[in-house]
Specification:
The complex is a heterodimer of chains A (267) and B (339). With 267 residues, chain A is α/β, with parallel strands linked by helices. Chain A has 9 helices and 11 strands. In chain A, the strands form 3 sheets. Chain A has a 6-stranded mixed β-sheet, sandwiched between helices. In chain A, strands 2-1-4 form a 3-stranded antiparallel β-sheet, covered by helices on one side. In chain A, strands 10-11 form a two-stranded antiparallel sheet. Helices cover 78% and strands 0% of the residues of chain B. Chain B has one domain: ABC transporter involved in vitamin B12 uptake, BtuC, CATH 1.10.3470. The chains are: A alpha/beta (267), B mainly alpha (339).
């Protein structure tokens, strides 16, 4: 499988720096979560790691290779990138889309073979979409599309998965099943790096957490070290409350009622 | 009870389904050509035409009507194929084969040749179409590439060549102006040489075979360039290849018939409603169904009223209402417009 690393990564749009001096390392078989306020550069970081953007400074390595220099097919076999919104609108069915997503695994023959069908049907089962195989994609709900996006990645059997908010459109039940699925993918030796706005789910499922703020890694460590009010309050500019529960090792983080730092509380 | 896996797999494109659809299309095309041979402004005795090679009916069927029908079939097939590719590539259900200025470029070439009294109207039309493509791709590249730049460049080049056509038309001698008008409406005549038809048929079939080999890439691009890239398609290269192939088809159609409208919109939409959005099925279907559609339209244009109409007039008259009908049906099923 493949380790993901970024060294002194920098990227700007025009004169505005979005990322500066970012260093991170994600090991095979682990889940790394990247959290941070809006505009901190999380999606840009994923784009750079996926090879969709070229860094202006520093370098990216996935399994020892620079993803931006790989041929499209080789990159598709090595890694899967799931953006927050993929804008998928099509009259093709879920199964047809999954078979097409096997493009990098296929040869010149333009039709699916038994291995393609097996991979697609296995992915459908893993994301709980087996009953939707013949449903046209434009008939799917937001949550079903998000599960389809994960299935599209699974059919390619990639060593690395880069996921931008993989559970943002999912109900509680599917959020949990999705994170359990991600955990099982990591257990198979894959490297997972995900961006999340939810501060609590990474605590249950991630092995390490990076906090991006202002385009820099402001904090990094295990969930127990990072997902604390004292660490995150200054970075998010919000007062956080730690709710303890006997059912959970880590406290649940939630914004303290309607308080933004610097504002006085009204009675 | 049926196995759900088998029923799922039955809906996916397979070589057998592709062959069956291609066969149906070819049968339809042959039937349409038979109708084109039998019906025209004057009556012919088909038995005599078949049995007596020296008869006037034989000459009428085999030297006039069939070459004209074959030209219509090739134009219809080329327009349907080009429409399919443009609509998938630009993710725009209203993209016509002429969206990148090929028709106005071709028109400029043809109108210039007619106005100058040259006999090489079709080579000039082809040159004009290719010139338009060069200008559009050059302007789109200068505008940063991408579909929006391409469409905007197409609009501008269309407008430029459209103005040039009007300018040449104004300067043309009155005896040439009627010919120019007929060419601009689009239609068929009986003056197609065998070499022109063989060359066109070979080109359409060769492009179709290449498109079939690239149908997966076309399917992925119809889902969006980002998704295609994610799946491993070299988007920049594939877009150029498909664009060139589709434009070549549109140029062939323009050369054979002038800028006939609506075929490249109607046929792909109708086929999507029947067959879904998989281009491995749609491409072979376009050959037969697009070809047969234009052959039958051309036959109707000759026999409906006492004065033969250019086929382009009839596609324009029929195209609007038929397209609205398809839109209404597509609105109910959504199958016709997406992907």
């Amino acid at each position: 499988m493949a380790e993901v690393s970024a060294t002194q990564l920098g990227f700007s749009w025009g004169s505005k720096p979005l990322l500066e001096g970012v260093n991170l390392r994600a090991l095979s078989g682990s889940i790394s979560a990247v959290i941070g306020p809006n505009g901190s550069g999380k999606s840009t970081l994923l784009g750079l790691l996926a090879g969709l953007l070229r860094p202006q400074t520093g370098s990216v390595s996935i399994g020892g290779k620079d993803p931006a220099l790989l041929a499209a097919r080789e990159r598709a076999r090595l890694l899967a990138f799931l953006p927050q919104r993929d804008g998928l609108e099509s009259a093709l069915t879920v199964l047809q889309v999954l078979l097409l997503s096997r493009y990098a695994q296929q040869g010149w023959w333009p039709f699916a073979d038994t291995a393609d069908f097996a991979a697609a049907e296995s992915a459908l089962l893993r994301v709980d979409l087996a009953d939707f195989a013949n449903r046209q994609v434009h008939q799917l709900s937001g949550g079903e599309r998000q599960r389809l996006a994960i299935a599209r990645a699974l059919v390619r059997d990639p060593a690395v998965l880069l996921l931008d908010e993989p559970a943002s459109a999912l109900d509680l039940c599917h959020q949990l099943s999705t994170f359990r699925l991600l955990r099982s993918l990591a257990a198979e030796g894959r490297t997972l790096l995900l961006v999340s706005h939810d501060l609590n789910l990474p605590g249950d499922f991630a092995d390490q957490v990076f906090v991006l703020a202002g385009g820099r890694i402001a904090a990094a460590g295990t969930p127990a070290e990072i997902l604390r009010a004292s660490v995150l309050e200054p970075l998010y500019g919000v007062a956080l409350h730690e709710a303890r529960s006997s059912a959970r090792a880590l406290p649940v983080l939630m914004p303290a009622a309607s308080l933004v730092r610097g504002q006085s509380e009204q009675p | 009870m049926s196995d759900p896996q088998c029923s799922n797999r039955a809906n996916v494109a397979s070589p057998g389904r592709v062959f069956l659809i291609a066969l149906l299309g070819v049968i339809l095309l042959v039937v349409a050509l038979g109708i084109a041979a039998a019906f025209g402004p004057t009556q012919v005795d088909l038995a005599r035409a078949w049995n007596d090679a020296s008869s006037a009916d034989h000459a009428k069927v085999f030297s006039l009507r069939l070459p004209r029908g074959i030209a219509a079939a090739l134009s219809g097939a080329a327009l349907a194929l080009a429409g399919l590719v443009f609509q998938a590539l630009l993710k725009n259900p209203l993209a016509s084969p002429y969206v990148l200025g090929v028709s106005s470029g071709g028109a400029f070439g043809a109108v210039s040749a007619i106005s100058a009294g040259w006999w090489m109207v079709r080579p000039c039309a082809f040159t004009g179409a290719m010139l338009a493509l060069l200008l559009v791709t050059g302007a789109a590249r200068a505008g940063g590439g991408g579909n929006t730049a391409l469409l905007l460049a197409g609009v501008v080049v269309n407008a430029l060549f459209g103005s040039a056509v009007l300018f040449v038309n104004v300067l043309a001698e009155p005896r040439n102006q009627e010919r120019i008008l007929r060419w601009l409406v689009g239609g068929f005549d009986e003056r197609y040489s065998n070499s022109e038809l063989w060359l066109s048929a070979g080109s359409v079939i060769a492009v179709l075979l290449v498109l079939l080999a690239l149908a997966r890439e076309l399917n992925l691009l119809s889902l969006g360039e980002r998704l295609a890239a994610e799946a491993g398609v070299n988007v920049a290269r594939m877009r150029v290849v498909l664009l060139l192939l589709a434009t070549l088809l549109a140029a062939l159609a323009v050369v054979l018939a002038g800028p006939i409208g609506f075929v490249g919109l109607l046929v792909p939409h109708g086929m999507r409603l029947c067959l879904g959005a998989d281009h491995r099925l749609l491409l072979p279907a376009a050959l037969g169904f697009g070809g047969a559609f234009l052959v039958l339209v051309d036959v109707c244009s000759q026999v409906l009223i006492s004065v033969p109409l250019p086929a382009g007039v009839l596609t324009a008259v029929l195209g609007g209402p038929l397209f609205l009908l398809l839109l209404a049906r597509g609105g109910r099923t959504r199958a016709g417009l997406d992907g």
